[in-house]
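ARCHIVE CARD
CATEGORY: sequence design from structure
SOURCE FIELD: tokenized fold
FIELD CONTENT:
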């Protein structure tokens, strides 16, 4: 089994959750999301991020607004919708339960 592949799959499993949290803090530009995710070692590329943002928008969880930029073409800034905020709150609860369960399993000593 390939360790790196398993690590990538684990990170992908929390990517949507992390993106929703980043956007929940206020308007955010996609490259800023990439920068923040990369800084915490959740490696993601534009080819993964943009389709995910489109899927979340089509699901009604986020919306975007075009804003003029001083350094080039207009930029798309993302925000959560009311539905997105509610969805994230539910995910927070799931995350807390998952972390608690995982800690219980991983803290048990072998015989």
């Amino acid at each position: 089994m390939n360790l790196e592949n398993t690590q990538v799959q684990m990170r992908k499993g929390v990517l949507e959750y992390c993106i929703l949290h980043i956007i929940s803090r206020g308007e955010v530009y996609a490259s800023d999301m990439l920068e923040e995710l990369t800084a915490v070692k959740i490696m993601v590329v534009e080819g993964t991020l943009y389709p995910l943002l489109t899927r979340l928008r089509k699901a009604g969880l986020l919306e975007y607004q075009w804003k003029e930029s001083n350094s080039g073409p207009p930029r798309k800034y993302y925000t959560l919708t009311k539905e997105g905020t509610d969805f994230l709150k539910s995910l927070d609860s799931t995350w807390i339960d998952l972390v608690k369960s995982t800690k219980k399993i991983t803290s048990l000593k072998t015989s």
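CARD ANNOTATION: The domain at 3-107 is CATH 1.10.10.10 (Arc Repressor Mutant, subunit A). The first strand starts at residue 28 and ends at 29.
SHELF: design records, drawer C
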